[in-house]
Amino acid sequence: MRDLCAAAVAAATAAGADYSDARVVLKREQLVAAKNGRVDRMTDAESEGIGVRVLVNGAWGFACDRRLTHEGAQNAAARACSFARAAAGRHSRALAPLEPRQGRHESAVERDPFAISLADKVELCLRADAALQAEDVVVRQVMVRARREHKVLLSSEGTEVEQILTECGAGMDCAAARDGIFQLRSYPSAHVGSSCQSGWEYVDGLRLVEEAPRVAEQAAALLHADPCPSGVTDLVLDGDQVALQVHESVGHPTELDRVYGTEASYAGTSFLKPNDLGSLTYGSEHMNITADPTTHGGLGSFAFDDEGVPATRTAVVEQGRLTGFLTSRETAARIGAGGGGSMRADGWNRMPLVRMTNLHIEPGDGTVDDLIAGVDDGVYMETNRSWSIDDKRLNFQFGTQIAWEIKRGKLGRMLRDATYTGITPEFWGSLDAVAGRESWQLYGLTNCGKGQPGQSAHVSHGAAPARFRSVQVGVRS
Amino acid sequence: MSALDVARAALEAAGGDAEAVAHSERSGLVRFAGSEVHQPTLIENVVVTLRVLHGNRAGVATTNKVGEDGLAELARRASAAAESAPPDESFPGLAPPAQPTEVEGYDAATAALGPDDQARLAAAAIDAAGDIPVYGFFTSAVSELAVASSTGLSVEQRMTDAGALVVAAAEGCSGYAEQTGWRAEDVDPAAVTRAASEKAARTHGAGTLEPGSYRAVLEPYAFADLLDYFSHDSLGALGLLERRGYLSDKLGERIADEKITIRDDPLDARGLPKAFDFEGTPKQPVLLVENGVARGVVWDRTTAARARDGAVTTGHAGPVESRDWGPLPYCLSVAPGDAESVDELAALVGEGIYVTRLHYLGVIDPREGIVTGMTRDGTFRIRRGKIAEPLVNLRFTVSVPGLLREVYGLTRTPSLVNSQNFYGDRYPYGVLAPAVAAARFTITGVGSKPGI
Q1: Exposed/middle/buried for A336, CB within 10 Å: 0-12, 13-18, 19+?
Q2: What is the ipTM of this complex?
Q3: Across the interface, do B376 and A64 touch by the CB < 8 Å criterion?
Q4: Overall pTM surpassing 0.90 (yes/no)
Q5: How close is the nearest chain A Cα to the Cα of B238, in Å?
Q6: pLDDT in tens, A375-430
Q7: A460: helix, coil or strand?
């Protein structure tokens, strides 16, 4: 792999590149899913290739080749250079300086998820699926997954790093229907469960079979619950929904490429401006957000990003004030601060983009019960069901799978079809408490989309339940 | 080596009962922002997915290593997966040999476009910009899909697609336009920029709007996006069988205005034609909504077998990575109306709002077809039958069938709206949609002004 990268970089230099980097990526992914008592999907996918990124006269070019041969590597480099010349703009891209690094990193894994037999994975899925059976349950679905990405990055500046990142995860969904009402419960998170950079011990720890009866019971109970009433009220969110709130309304708007408009044609821009750094009030004093690719087990954990920048913990919001952006070497040079460190590519055939790594809301004090105890009249919501946010990441509307009313500091009746809406800085300004470290955990998302052509990133968020005052809930058409 | 050659080689490596789906792509996408190129990407890949059967146990594996060793390893992994799978009594078996209808969808001139051409066409979009910077891309590709199986099935289709997408945007203004087709000659990047720029210029000074229900004109971009999201739960057989979709228990009932007829029409050369699905079954046009009455959904072999009521596949199995959704309509087509223009639709609306496109849709309640999202890049008031002053971006929350229950009119000429965002392997698809004027479009929140 190293020799192929070297051949690509040499070819790019010979073709006139001022800068080049080459990534060889070998990826394997396994998925087993059971649905209503039968194996619904069982896939084992591998993909390999080399991607070469070049700067020629200040213009980017990217090309790739699935062949892991010297011919393939040199071919990709030559095409990237000619594409950069053909698509040159009237600009000159500059990169923040980087001291070249050499290193090797591997995820900490106790039980290799690919050493767990497919038969064992099937059995786990079918057992959990069976445990989801309950009256009015119409769809039961359980899945387990694993991924390993082995990549080598080599640049014309002397960077040379090798990383092997292993992750796995699991999840279950249970749908109940009656009299035209359709309700869903998921565990441990919605949208293909939750994943972690870990061995199979993570999946074991989720205790899918043991959790399944509660999940099914809640799905069925939601059929008899009242719809969440509309109004402005106090809101307590579970950690899973707080994680998504952080992702959508803090993670994406602090991506500096979005701030500069380079995602305007697809994912959107940001309400933030470069000169907001250090001065903008993002939320209340209880809001502390950290980007941390060094987090143990995070899906966005690495030793080096896909530009070879060493992993570094960065404060993005401190006591409600914007203190950092997620950057690439190019955007860091443009703003004149930082050195990049958030560049990630979806495999060998995509160009790295500024992406979230692991973005956490730092814990406060107490438990979720303490948060609820501080609400006289409000709603507690759990587990995301729907999400939508505008192109500048200001106006959002989220729905959760389940909710309970809060009366005089206690949970009351169960509510269905709960939604809430807000404007990002106002909403975070209404944050008045985050639960403590013992309630804080990692939530791993595998469906973060961005870029043209599209790229999907795997991202973790550490989050704990949180309380917000005077939020608009219960929006319906 | 063609995709069919790869599929046949994988089938040979498997030896026994098996199905191989090969999918190749050669594409270039020149992305620009602020009227400058910033992500020029060339992709070449071929991926083969092998499904091996051991009786009624199936195992699936995928690779892009299509040499002899790679395919042998693929066959070993697929076989191991089949060995690990329990018997599936509901497995419908592999598709029989078939002779799909010949379709359009391949253009040699588009296939011949190389990186220099793609860069030139992107430059045409950039150079057509005036004072307002442009953000978007030009892309073109040639892709091949082939399915071969031990039943003797052997089908292949070559497809081309090209597209230009432009957001013209500056502080306080933005506009959008897009063209997609299987012939690059049908895509005029400069015209796309001019349309987006003209729209953007009209959005300066956007005002706000009180939430509430409004009459509305939706451009094809907005209408297509709503239908695409609605279709995932409600126009495929899996949503029907799982009682998750809006059409569950409503087939044969009136669900929309009689002006609304929706098909999936894979053979229509005005769209992005498809000859067969990812199981190799020839695609059939399917009537989904006829004059407002729910008529059907699209099927694949798995859902048809599960229905146990005589349902048959309509040729709508998707790629493996999309199978969670079941069969989907990849060639939605809405019957046009008789309005000559969106201005005529605005006249029908009288007082209301005008929506160019939508952003970040989310399904709140699939059973009721309720979707939320934001308007973007060209939202206007309609006053006294004319498109009037610009509005800020608006949050909407609508039931799609509710929106279509009272329709004032549709434009005569539909537009092909691209629905793929080029994730994973290239499979061009889109919606053929006119603009629509409807009685109820519910605004539930107010967002920021347009633009960067």
Answers
A1: exposed
A2: 0.94
A3: no
A4: yes
A5: 11
A6: 999 999 999 999 999 999 999 999 999 999 999 999 999 999 999 999 999 999 99
A7: strand
